[in-house]
């Protein structure tokens, strides 16, 4: 069965510092890959997605992610974090053979930003 | 982008009563919608796939008689939590995709508290 692992439950970074959130997946074939952000009590906003092609994906709010097939990873990065980036981040996968709406989520990483 | 609206945003109900949550696609038609459940500080778990004009498909371990799903039109799916108990208290989120679109759009979520 497919699974998504986010090893870091909670990360704290200083404003202006760089950020990397880790995501590993276990899947029979390369799935669609997503990163979502969730503010407290809110729904989810898509940051970026990978379907095929260039393995470095640019998203909104200055985020990017790199797909590494050999490592089954899709880590999220941002060169300089802003205080408003504090939120919960979810990595998710969906099968390429089905609808990309049927998502399997990782456990999430809570990002705290210190001033 | 496509907009998915959930109503209500929050609801408090007494134990033993039923609660209905609506998920609407405002500017597109969705033959399939998805319902997720999120416990505090945990990830989103897929509960069921809502199919317009047919029965919903439930994930393993989800009680179909307790979580009734109706997808009566191409823009509306409803989730009814029947005979709610405190353990049903959770954050419920729906998602949908326009036909042929590979991105999921999420509602704002509904915070259910059963007292």
Describe what is shown at a glance.
The complex is a heterodimer of chains A (115) and B (115). Chain A is 0% helix and 50% strand.
Question: Any low-confidence stretches of chain A, pLDDT <50, length ≥5?
Answer: none
Q: What is the residue-mean pLDDT of chain B, rounded to a whole number? A: 92
Radius of gyration of chain A: 13 Å
Tell how many strands the DSSP assignment of chain B holds: 11
Question: Distance between the terminal alpha carbons of chain A, to the nearest Å?
Answer: 41 Å
- Helical residue percent of chain B? under 10%
Strand runs of chain A, count: 12
Shape of chain A: globular
Helix/strand order of chain B, N-terminal first = EEEEEEEEEEE
How many helix segments of chain A?
Answer: 0
Descriptive account of the structure:
The complex is a heterodimer of chains A (115) and B (115). Chain A has strands at 3-5, 10-14, 19-21, 24-26, 32-38, 44-50, 56-58, 64-68, 73-78, 87-94, 104-105, 109-114. Chain A is mainly beta. Helices cover 0% and strands 50% of the residues of chain A. Chain A has no helices and twelve strands. The model of chain A has no long low-confidence stretch (mean pLDDT 92). In chain B, a hairpin with a 5-residue loop joins strand 4 (32-38) and strand 5 (44-51). Chain A binds chain B through residues 32, 34, 36, 41-46, 49, 51, 90, 94, 99-108, 110, and chain B through 6, 32, 34, 36, 41-46, 49, 91, 93, 95-97, 101-104, 106-109, 111.
Layout of secondary structure:
The complex is a heterodimer of chains A (115) and B (115).
Chain A (H helix, E strand, L loop, with lengths): L2 E3 L4 E5 L4 E3 L2 E3 L5 E7 L5 E7 L5 E3 L5 E5 L4 E6 L8 E8 L9 E2 L3 E6 L1
Parallel strand pairs in A: 2-12
Antiparallel strand pairs in A: 1-4, 3-9, 5-6, 5-10, 7-8, 8-9, 10-11, 10-12
Chain B lengths: L3 E4 L2 E4 L5 E7 L6 E7 L5 E8 L5 E2 L8 E7 L2 E6 L8 E7 L8 E2 L3 E5 L1
Parallel strand pairs in B: 2-11
Antiparallel strand pairs in B: 1-3, 3-8, 4-5, 4-9, 5-6, 7-8, 9-10, 9-11
């Amino acid at each position: 069965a497919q699974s998504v692992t986010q090893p870091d439950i909670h990360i704290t970074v200083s404003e202006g510092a760089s950020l990397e959130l880790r995501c590993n997946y276990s899947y029979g074939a390369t799935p669609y890959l997503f990163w979502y952000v969730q503010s407290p009590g809110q729904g989810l906003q898509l940051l970026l997605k990978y379907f095929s092609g260039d393995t470095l994906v640019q998203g909104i709010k200055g985020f990017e992610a790199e797909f590494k097939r050999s490592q089954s990873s899709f880590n999220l990065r941002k060169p300089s974090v802003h205080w408003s980036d504090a939120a919960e981040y979810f990595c998710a996968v969906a099968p390429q053979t089905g609808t990309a709406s049927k998502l399997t989520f990782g456990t999430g990483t809570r990002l705290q930003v210190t001033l | 982008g496509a907009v998915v609206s959930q109503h209500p945003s929050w609801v408090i109900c007494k134990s033993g009563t039923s609660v209905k949550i609506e998920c609407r696609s405002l500017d597109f038609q969705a033959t399939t919608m998805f319902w997720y459940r999120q416990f505090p500080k945990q990830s989103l778990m897929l509960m069921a796939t809502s199919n317009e004009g047919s029965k919903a498909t439930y994930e393993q371990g989800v009680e179909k008689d307790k979580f009734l799903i109706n997808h009566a039109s191409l823009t509306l799916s409803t989730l009814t939590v029947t005979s709610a108990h405190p353990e049903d208290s959770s954050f419920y989120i729906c998602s949908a995709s326009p036909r042929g679109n590979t991105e999921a759009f999420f509602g704002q979520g509904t915070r259910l508290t059963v007292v």
